[in-house]
Amino acid sequence: MQKGYVQVYTGNGKGKTTAALGLALRAAGAGMRVYIGQFLKQGCYNELESLKRFSDLIVIEQFGTGQYVFGEPSEADREAAAMAFFALSDAVMSGTYDVVIMEEANVALSFGLLKEEDLFRVIDSRPENVEIVITGRGATPALIEKADLVTEMKPVKHYYEKGVLARKGIES
Fold first, then answer.
1. By the 8 A CB rule, do 116 and 85 touch?
2. How, if at all, do strands 131-135 and 99-103 pair?
3. What are the C-alpha distances in Å from 84 to residues 10, 77, 96?
4. Mean pLDDT, 10 residues at a time, the chain of 172 residues
5. What domains does the chain contain, in order, with CATH numbers?
6. Contact 52, 115 (CB under 8 A)
7. Distance between CA atoms of 7 and 151, rounded to whole angstroms?
């Protein structure tokens, strides 16, 4: 890839991570190497099992504490986010990966676990051929301005409203 862009998937609707994972599969199908760093997740999600089949091209790491962040983040949340940002920054700058997905980075920004200026420094200094994908609700106006592509997932209708819980292989 000669030129990489910055993509942001945001909004309150379902599909941000799913879109990013779809892009990862498409890139792997083209022989590209992908790094996915998950800021907030920790635990067994079915995408981890699926992506093991592509471990020669897709690396995924979880850095979250496994707890939802409510109110003020804990020290463990802050340490986990710092490790995630270090790993993602290294992945961007290493020259090893064509695509780097920063999953839930928008949420990490909104909780103060990540500083916008640090994220922008990585974006601005990345090798020209590296594509960066940033997911999560609440993308900041400055990030939206900086990005080359922004998709907002907007909820219109969802069966959660009728009490349907997350289904294995579909939502989890």
1. no
2. parallel
3. 19, 10, 17
4. 95 95 97 95 80 95 80 88 97 97 96 96 98 98 98 93 87 79
5. 6-162 (3.40.50.300)
6. no
7. 8
